[in-house]
Amino acid sequence: MRQLNADLPLRFERTFQPWMYTASHRTLVLRSHGRADPGHESAEFAEAIDVMFVNVIAMSTRVRYRPLLIAALSDLTEVEGFPEVPERLRAGFVYLSVSDGTHDGFVVCGNLQVDTTGELGLRWSARIPS
User: What global pTM score does this model have?
Assistant: First the structure.
């Protein structure tokens, strides 16, 4: 498996939801809002957390996760044939399970970054023209 910017498995005991996806940059951000986020003053936690999947080529995700569990995908049956990745390029991608413990999904991507300050997704979204 490709070396990631985060150690697996990851477990967050808070609510996450897809916050941003950009097809042109193939980037998915799952965000857990914090009280500092506009409109989320009553959030359970002070700081936001962003989980950014970079170079996404395939995904099957839910609207909400609590908790959020991310691990290496051990059974590739659901993913096989979904992303058409030539054999010579497969080493550049990781196959990740994204789950809440009950409902399983997946993300096939080039890397994963976790920002516990919630700034990563904000900086990225500021770069995207509206």
Answer: 0.84
Range list of H helices, the chain? 119-127
Rg (CA), the chain: 15
- Closest among 10, 96, 12, 76 to 47, alpha carbons compared: 12
Give 88's contacts (C-beta < 8 A, 6+ positions apart): none
What 3-state DSSP class applies to 90? helix
Per residue in 42-82, pLDDT (tens digit) is 889 889 999 999 999 999 999 999 999 999 988 888 787 77
Q: Which two tokens stand for residue 98?
A: 């994204």
Q: What is the length of the chain?
A: 130
**Neighbouring residues of 81: CB distance < 8 A, sequence distance ≥ 6:** none
